[in-house]
């Protein structure tokens, strides 16, 4: 049911009483205008930087994300947004960013061979043979095993096969521990 003009007048009066004429108080209530307070904010961000730095190793972007959030808590909203943009723009031109974008495009291009039509029938791979069970052969075998494809590794000497199998087992055990 539509509100009568007297009910709308009451609503207008309530809003004006609660929030001030012209929404002045509303401007103060915006989340972007609220101060960010934490009793140990600097310690928290140092903890976050230590954790993220340990996990992100050679990638600068995760630490810059923490810096951007920290800036947002210490600056006015518009200044924090400007700092975030500055950090992001600087990251766009790092060697890591360029390499990751190259990798992204290369992965997509690798699945498209120019002279092979899209409708070419695909064959199921039921098993693979990997020559050598060393570091490289063991890693290749693990990739196929992870995809559910049996990998056969012919070796001339039993001790080489045992060493390769032990390395694969050790690698799987390390993954389980993580």
Written overview of the protein:
The chain has 178 residues and is an all-alpha fold. Helix content is 65%, strand content 2%. It has helices at residues 5-19, 24-29, 41-56, 61-74, 77-92, 95-110, 135-146, 158-177, and strands at residues 128-129, 151-152. The chain has a two-stranded parallel ribbon. Strand 1, helix 7 and strand 2 form a beta-alpha-beta unit. It is elongated.
Strand content: under 5%
Largest sheet: 2 strands, parallel
Q: How many helical stretches?
A: 8
Q: If strands are numbered along the chain, what order do they take across the biggest sheet?
A: 1-2
Structural class: mainly alpha
- Overall pLDDT score: 86
Number of separate strands: 2
Contiguous runs where pLDDT drops below 50 for at least 5 residues: none
Gyration radius, rounded: 30 Å
